[in-house]
Design a protein that fits this description.
With about 350 residues, this protein is of the alpha/beta class. Helices cover about 40% and strands about 15% of the residues. It contains 15 helices and ten strands. The strands form two sheets. A seven-stranded mixed β-sheet has the order 1-7-6-5-4-2-3, sandwiched between helices. Strands 8-10-9 form a three-stranded antiparallel β-sheet, covered by helices on one side. Strand 9 and strand 10 form a beta hairpin.
Length: about 350
């Protein structure tokens, strides 16, 4: 069933599938001691710079947990938006597996600012309080909004003043890059991001997730923390081969550009019908208000999520393989109900 439920619902891009088939060649040494993983590390360093130290993992939650553990002791605290993935959709795994407290901040648009973070930066050196050590942001946010380069730089500069780290969740970073007209390096390393959860699963890959450290002291122990966090894949070539294919020919940007384009088309069509959008449609996520009776009828033919029942908000997400027919089919059914 084709849907706007999530970009996790879409299939695998043919180039990624081809890379997987090529990696399925005879025997290869396990746990990353294979030529595909060596090549993927080279490709990621070429993309982010030699400072980048990539580690491949199973999934986005595992990437976030491993990154947090690389930066935080159990007595530390991680600051995140209340709508952040680590606060809402990871079943408490970041806090449970790292021991660090997750401090949530209310935001109007899913994005953190120095002003929103500053009230939580207290108790340094006081043993009765969790020590603030990391700020977590998503690019793009769970609300579909995108941080500008200036916003990221300001956050990084502010966080570093307090000897803290900035973690970026890049599950949809390619969509944000396309929206900004920038590369992944410009959005991360060049802005002062310390560590990145870099994923391709939502953008045409099968299971391509990684942790990329941009500071030597963070990379030092990640291989042990990855194993402890049950994220070390024995047949790693099937993950790493995807990343090489994902980066080749800018496939990550091409897939994201299509998803963003379909979101913009869907946004414009629904805007023309008078619907109110609650967040800026920066990338491939749309949040809008729709009456419950209309939602119930649409759900009989189309799958999507109700974001907030109290405010009558729904969430629509486009993917690398969303078609104009998908968009217009949904719009036509909305017109019929109107």
């Amino acid at each position: 069933m084709r849907s706007f439920g999530s970009d996790n619902n879409s299939g695998v891009h043919p180039q990624i599938m081809e890379a997987l088939m090529k990696a399925n060649d005879n025997h290869a040494l396990a746990y990353g001691d294979d030529p595909w993983t060596a090549q993927a590390v080279k490709d990621l360093k070429a993309c982010f710079g030699e400072i980048a130290e990539p580690y491949f993992v199973f999934n986005g939650t595992g990437a976030n947990v491993t990154a947090i553990r690389a930066c935080c002791q159990p007595f530390h605290a991680v600051i995140a938006a209340r709508t952040a993935h680590i606060a809402v959709d990871e079943c408490g795994a970041p806090g449970f597996l790292s021991g660090a407290a997750v401090k949530e901040v209310d935001t109007p648009d899913g994005k953190l600012t120095p002003e929103l973070i500053k009230p939580l930066l207290h108790g340094f050196g006081f043993e009765h309080h969790s020590q603030p050590k990391m700020v977590y942001i998503s690019q793009c946010s769970e609300l579909g909004t995108v941080y500008t380069l200036t916003e990221i730089k300001n956050l990084a500069d502010f966080v570093h003043q307090y000897n803290m780290y900035l973690l970026m969740d890049g599950a949809r970073i390619a969509n944000a890059c396309v929206a900004l007209g920038k590369t992944v390096k410009e959005v991360t390393v060049d802005c002062g991001v310390d560590i990145l959860s870099f994923g391709g699963t939502k953008n045409g890959c099968m299971m391509a997730e990684s942790v990329i450290a941009f500071r030597p002291e963070l990379a030092e122990n990640i291989k042990y923390l990855r194993k402890q966090s049950t994220q070390l894949y024995s047949k790693m070539r099937y993950v790493s081969a995807q990343f090489s294919a994902y980066l080749q020919g800018d496939l990550l940007y091409k897939n994201a550009a299509h998803a963003n384009k379909m979101a913009q088309k869907l946004h414009q069509e629904l805007l023309n019908l008078g619907f109110e959008f609650t967040q800026s449609p920066d990338a491939n996520i749309l949040l809008l208000k729709m009456e419950p009776d209309m939602v119930d009828k649409l759900l009989q033919k189309h799958f999507f999520y109700v974001w907030d029942e109290n405010t009558h908000e729904i969430r629509l997400v486009t993917s690398w393989d969303t078609t104009e027919e998908d968009v217009m089919s949904f719009v036509q059914d909305v017109k019929v109900l109107i």
